[in-house]
Amino acid sequence: MSQSGWTASPASGILGLVQSVLKSLLFVPHENPAGRIRPLLSLGWTLNYEMFFYLVFALFLGAPQGLRFPAVASVFAILVLLGAAFPAQNPAWITYTDPIILEFVFGMGLARALISGATLPKWGAGALALLGVCGFALLSRLSLEDLPHRWIMFGLPATALVAGFVWLEAAGARFAWRLPKLLGDASYSLYLTHIFTLGALRWLWTAAEAPQDPLLFTLAGAAASCIVAVLSYKLVERPLVLALSRFVPRSRASTVRAAT
Predict the structure, then answer these.
(1) How many Å apart are CA 111 and CA 170, to the nearest integer?
(2) In the chain, what are the domain boundaries?
(3) 23: Cβ–Cβ under 8 A, 6 or more apart, which residues?
(4) What does pTM read for this prediction?
(5) Which residue among 53, 172, 177, 213 is the one 20 to 30 A from 165 at the CA level?
């Protein structure tokens, strides 16, 4: 069963909490004290997948460049097939055999296409990006329970959206939109803070007896999340990255500073 839908009996006591903290910090999939296969900070479940991808990819760095993509793709495909053939209740098995890992294959495929010199005209790239936007617009009208194959339903629109804008840029399109760029820079802060922002907003919303309008709350939540994320990026994330870059070799530090 998909990692996102499986629960088990909760770990108990202080020992369970300590184990959950350590496993969360080490990106080890586990059953947290709430009884879900999530790290202690639940939104960090995506980082568990990212770290697994980095580990698998690193195992093939010594292989010829042309073999890395098919090798990693084959490993992920085999894991998904094994998960379907041999379902188990182990948190790591459930996590690392979830079809969602195939979305990494989509990203690698796009990267390989770009490296190989594949191009699209501006109109084709724009159409691809628009297709991705339309795909997500359609998904917004469905509940997660209606999406049995999330790796396809979300993975394909996401790939189309990213591919469209990457190829637009490669075709010479230039975007000087300062606000979207700022939000892009703050995207990791947005990822880390939005759950707390929305929780605080929901509490304030209820305390103020604001209108129970889902659309209004969604718009307010999006705006508040972006504002908090930008503040976090400016006041916390960027200063920390710049401070830590002092401990990185000079050539790499300049790259870090350029990225921030």
Answers:
(1) 13
(2) 1-114, 119-174, 178-259
(3) 29, 30, 39
(4) 0.78
(5) 53
